[in-house]
Amino acid sequence: MAELFKFELVSPERLLLSDEVLEVVVPGTSGEFGVLKNHSPFMSTIKPGILKVRKSSGWTEYFVRGGFADAGPGGLTVLAERAIPVAEIKRSDLDQQIKNAEEDVADAQGDDAKQKAEMHLSQLKDVAAALNAA
Amino acid sequence: MPSLKDLRNRIASVKATQKITKAMQMVAAAKLRRAQEAAEAARPYAERMGEVLANLAAEYQGRDDAPKLMAGTGKDDVHLLVVATAERGLCGGFNSNIAKLAKERARSLISQGKTVKILCVGKKGFDAIKRDFGKYVVKTVELQGVKSVGFAHADNIGRDVLTMFENGEFDVCTLFYSEFRSVISQIPTAQQIIPAHFDGAEKGEKADASAIYEYEPDEGDILEDLLPRNISVQVFRALLENAASEQGARMSAMDSATRNAGEMIDKLTISYNRQRQAQITKELIEIISGAEAL
Contacts for B252-260 with beta carbons within 8 Å, 24 or more apart? Predict the structure, then answer.
């Protein structure tokens, strides 16, 4: 039986999760890695993907993008620029949003607007790709 | 001497003003609470980011291959001042204090023969700066209609700054905003974000843990990934501090405006009553002296 350790998931806007957990699987830039209690001090950047957290009640999944994970004696901290619980993302909504974003790109006037629309679209596609892979 | 009717009108109009300022004060109080919560929610991220960067930076201290965002371009000829202010006025000295600090800095830099570029965030700051330094303003960002600043807004500004830096348009970047201490005290602050400064890094103290830390990818790559992100995080923090400060400043400004209006109403009411009494007395004297004359 795995032991509990402290895990924090932080985005710039809020502290999403701060709890005792059993296991966390982090999508690192050079591959996924799992963290259990007493992981050796380790730091890695993360790529857009799904972060999985196991508590005694089961797994929860979060979509994370941009940031890093920091494992140390005090536990694991993941700082992500964007972090959304997967349960809050609905597949049909996402597809609709991607479609809207694609239209936005096509309709965008001027470089600035176009760049913005493209960024938005690529973010959405990241989410979709991560969900597909999971 | 104003007539009784004039006085009555003035009292009515001051009362109406007082109602407005009172309402604004209450709105600001409610918004302040939300802004403060947002600022507090963002704190853990900024703090962790700072700790990690300080750790990493300590290893790079004094090395030649340190990233430019940390070590600078080696010159300090062109300065970019990012001046973050509010979109609205009626909040006491909030906007003008930030603008004043930025203008002082610009003035001293120019007198030292440096080139100054200004990026204004918020309409009010631009209004205050454009009179003296209008030709130095390279860009303005307006956040009008934005109800609560999200990280995306800060990220956009951060990216703009980074693009300018990569194009070699400036050497040093300083961020001006107002730090929120309490409702009655907001401190205009200048913070240098490029090249980045970290507490602890200068002292050369290395956290013990970093010695045995394993990095993936290696430290240099992580640092290069994090430094640009840190710019956005700092801008975000400044915007949140600003939002809280603005509401705090507005709250105390509106509080004193309401109190002032109250004092004014009292004074006007006294002179109104006195004048009314004087008029009654005058009329009585006229009637009595008229009756005596008969």
Answer: B252/B92, B252/B183, B252/B184, B253/B90, B253/B91, B253/B92, B254/B21, B254/B22, B254/B24, B254/B25, B254/B28, B254/B90, B255/B25, B257/B17, B257/B21, B257/B25, B258/B18, B258/B21, B258/B22, B258/B25
Say yes or no: B85 and B145 in one domain.
yes
Residue type, B143: L
Max intra-chain CA distance, chain B = 114
pLDDT tens by residue, B160-200: 899 999 888 889 999 999 988 888 889 999 988 888 877 54
CATH number at residue A60: 2.60.15.10
Looking at CA atoms only, how far is residue B212 from chain A in angstroms? 7
Q: Is A63 found in the same domain as A23?
A: yes
Same domain, A46 and A9: yes
> A79 at the B interface (CB within 8 A)?
yes
Give domain status of residue B292, yes or no.
no
Residue of B69, B91, B128, B157 with catalytic role: B91
Span B5-51, pLDDT tens digits: 999 999 999 999 999 999 999 999 999 999 998 888 888 888 888 88
The answer to whether residue B249 sits within a structural domain is: yes
* Residues A81 and A107 occupy one common structural domain: no
Q: How far apart are the first and last CA of chain B?
A: 33
Residues B117 and B192 in one domain: yes
Q: What's the pTM value of the predicted model, to 2 decimals?
A: 0.82
A12 to B233: CB separation less than 8 angstroms, yes or no? yes
ipTM of the shown complex: 0.72
Which residue of B42, B213, B225 is in closest CB contact with A45?
A: B225
Q: Are residues B65 and B15 in the same domain?
A: no
Number of domains in chain A: 2
Determine the structural domain holding residue B36 and report its residue range.
26-253
Residue B91 annotated to the active site: yes
Is residue B293 a part of any domain in this protein?
A: no
CB contact under 8 A, A43 and B213: yes
Q: Are residues B138 and B163 in the same domain?
A: yes
Give B94-142 pLDDT, tens digit per residue.
999 999 999 999 999 999 989 999 999 988 889 888 888 888 888 888 8
